[in-house]
Amino acid sequence: MENILDRFLRYIAIDTMSNEESESQPSEAKELVLSEMLVKELKALGVDNAVLDKNGYVMASIESNCGKDVPAVGFIAHVDTAPDAPGKCVNPQIIKNYDGGDIELKGVPGLALKVADFPEMAEYKGQTIITTDGTTLLGADDKAGVAEIMDAVQYIVSHPEFKHGPVKIAFTPDEEIGRGVVAFDVKGFGADFAYTMDGGAVGELEYENFNAASAKIHIQGRNIHPGYAKNKMVNAIHIANEFCSLLPPQQRPEHTEWYEGFFHITSISGTVEEADIAVIIRDHDRTLFEKKKEFLGNAVAYLNGKYGDIITLNLRDQYYNMREMVEPHFHVVEKAIKAMEMAGIKAKVQPIRGGTDGANLSFKGLPCPNIFAGGLNFHGKMEYVPLESMQKASEVILNILSLYCE
Q: N- to C-terminal Cα distance for the chain?
């Protein structure tokens, strides 16, 4: 019997960073290293039908022992980590009986998780905290979710007295680049309802998420020797800066919360000759989302009118707000709330300021709210997760299955 911490540490030591620039499925072959490991582990636990398909999806199922006709419930987590920081965490820090103070990240001198910056840290005093050493992200998004599902599977197969309906398990690639379920076989998965274990702090429960789009802007400048550049040079760097200045500063991520949407410049690079900008657009409200996309297009059109059609815009939708697809099946939310109460947790129902595989799965016909995985400060070197939160998430999975068996 392996504990959840050992599983988690093994999973985060594998580099599974996805790659938005890749057109392959999955985007990086290295994601399959963890996926193949999970298939072997599932089979070792006795889940003999575990498979890894050609698109990089791990799927498995456990037959019902409930003795009655109940829905098949799925649990899903993604194996990839965000491209925002190195994704192979080989030097995690394990702080037992956390004292509630600042935590030094010993891989980078002077870097620390400070309670002044992250006051929620104090809520986990006395618990076991897993952090990075400051050189990589941790990978709790979403390897904590993977470990929690595997821990629940271990309990189910080793406790035949535990009553449950059909259990469906899936691990997906490329969630962090918005392509997590593009080739997901919902019918083959076989679940009536599902949950992604991909949320943040303990207690979080979400069935609303952003509508999301990504934009790539290319600026073709004209480089002329600076000594002879008057009325001839077109500096793509300056135009890129001008474009960025057109986006409303009050609608940046660092100035928004709850249901407020934003424009987020994720990268900018270039020379005098040409420059590239990547932007993501987010809004819970579909009308405001469409207006934001229109605003971006108008900004490009304005600069093209000023400089002569030297800017191209590639804008694509990534996912939509799953609320409209989940609300008609609201029992999936109610069951999760009850399952948390059974685990001694007060559910915090709130909108996701991000996205999950569950958004696109809901639009594919599989209602799929999102449950906490326990981690905080995702996508960066300040990421951490309390061990007790992961343990509670695994308990919630079991409670949901128990409730549906009733």
A: 28
Count of Cβ atoms closer than 10 Å to residue 256 Cβ:
17
Alpha carbon distances (Å) from 183 to 52, 55, 57, 175, 192: 13, 7, 9, 12, 18
Distance CA 159, CA 223 (A): 70
Dihedral pair phi/psi, residue 148, rounded to 5°:
-65, -40
The per-residue pLDDT for 360 is 87
Q: Which residue has the tokens 């129902």?
A: 349
Q: Which two tokens stand for residue 63?
A: 């037959």
Phi, psi of 395 (to 5 degrees): -65, -40
Provide the whole-model pTM.
0.84
Residues that are catalytic: 80, 175
Q: Which of 194, 177, 191, 171 is nearest to 55 (CA)?
A: 171
DSSP letter assigned to residue 55: T
Alpha-carbon gap, residue 155 to 65, rounded angstroms: 14
Q: 3-state DSSP: the chain helix, strand, coil percent, rounded to 5?
A: 35, 20, 45
Q: Which two tokens stand for residue 371?
A: 């449950």
**Cα dihedral across residues 254, 255, 259, 260: positive or negative:** negative
**Stretch (H or E) spanning 153:** helix 140-158
Distance CA 353, CA 282 (A): 8
Measured at the CA of 76, the angle between CA 143 and CA 9, to 5 degrees, comes to 15
Instruction: Give me the count of residues in the chain.
Output: 406
Q: What is the mean pLDDT of residues 354-378?
A: 90
pLDDT of residue 1: 66
Q: Which residue reads 């910056």 in tokens?
A: 117
d(CA 288, CA 290): 5
CA dist 193 and 168 (Å) reads 10
Please answer whether residues 215 and 279 qualify as being in contact, where contact means their C-beta atoms are separated by less than 8 angstroms.
yes
Tokens of 260: 């407020």
Tokens of 72: 């098949």
**Tens of pLDDT, residues 177-190:** 878 899 999 999 99
Residue 355 has pLDDT above 90, yes or no: no
CA distances from residue 363 to 137, 212, 264 in whole angstroms, order as listed:
31, 14, 25
